[in-house]
Amino acid sequence: MKIGAVMFFTAYSMSPVALGRALEERGFESLWVPEHSHIPLSRKTPYPAGGPLIRPYYDLMDPFLALNAAASVTTRLKVGTGVCLMNQRDPIITAKMVSTLDQLSGGRFLFGVGNGWNQDEMENHGTVFATRHQLVRERIEAMKAIWTQDAAAYHGDFVSFDPMNQWPKPVQKPHPPVIVGGAFPFAARRAIRYGDGWIPHADRLEKDGIGGLIEQFRVMARAAGRDPAGLPITVFRAPEDIARLRFCQEIGIDRVVFSLPAEKEAAVLPILDRWAALQRQVEG
């Protein structure tokens, strides 16, 4: 089972360069960065974790630039969006960004995607809240066409373009894994329909019984004609608890990702060292 970390990079946090190096030195598999382009002062939808938004949501750096900085000083560490909000992004521009980062990192990019929860934020981008799920599916399908075809075309209800050329193509073939984030059952269904993996959150999984939901996901995948082995599961917000990590390993979780505070090295490095010890136990 692979272990990675996620951080909200800000002007006052540890830098992506420093954290990327520290993660690779300790043998971790991946670094993930979330995305919010901005935070509207209005709030039509509540924060899923409850209460007010924490400050790093407002101060978050661009994920692709942060990940490229980390990739440029590492050689093995994978870098991923956790998650990229495709409901707010142009698919042609984003396809090139993904391909470019995959090229610059030597094929180390993991494309975590999500449909978002902040209605005000996505509406500022011109996205209709009620149809965001179909919009994202079409944007993902369009990007796959761009990555895999020399003369790509796509025609849907929300995304449409005639044959076009775009290079570079990604290093990974047919493209970097599209790992769909979100809760069970709806995001799980989206992962099965157009994804290469699923990203649930550990706290939400445990509320309903992580083992049971994972098995339900695999049953759904088989019913849809997908091999569960081709849909690896990445659990975010993994607990700092060896028994729970070993349980994740036993039920076939592919990767766990632990959260880091948006703070400097003095606060972050001890957390990395504790997780490195846990990683040795998991591997042990």
What does this protein structure show overall?
This protein is an alpha/beta fold and 284 residues long. It has one domain (2-283): TIM Barrel (Alpha-Beta Barrel). 42% of the residues lie in helices and 17% in strands. It has eleven helices and ten strands. The chain has helices spanning 16-25, 56-59, 63-72, 91-104, 119-124, 132-148, 186-194, 202-208, 210-223, 242-250, 265-283, and strands at 2-7, 30-33, 78-85, 109-114, 152-155, 160-164, 178-181, 198-199, 234-236, 255-260. Strands 8-7-4-3-2-1-10-9 form an eight-stranded parallel β-sheet. The chain is globular and about 50 Å long. The model has no long low-confidence stretch (mean pLDDT 96).
Give a summary of the structure in a few sentences.
GO terms for molecular function: oxidoreductase activity, acting on paired donors, with incorporation or reduction of molecular oxygen. The chain is an alpha/beta fold and 284 residues long.
Record the SSE blueprint.
Layout: E1 2-7, H1 16-25, E2 30-33, H2 56-59, H3 63-72, E3 78-85, H4 91-104, E4 109-114, H5 119-124, H6 132-148, E5 152-155, E6 160-164, E7 178-181, H7 186-194, E8 198-199, H8 202-208, H9 210-223, E9 234-236, H10 242-250, E10 255-260, H11 265-283
Parallel strand pairs: 1-2, 1-10, 2-3, 3-4, 4-7, 7-8, 9-10
Antiparallel strand pairs: 5-6
Protein name: LLM class F420-dependent oxidoreductase
GO molecular function, one term: oxidoreductase activity, acting on paired donors, with incorporation or reduction of molecular oxygen
InterPro entries: F420-G6PD/mer, Lucif-like_OxRdtase_Rv2161c, Luciferase-like_dom, Luciferase-like_sf
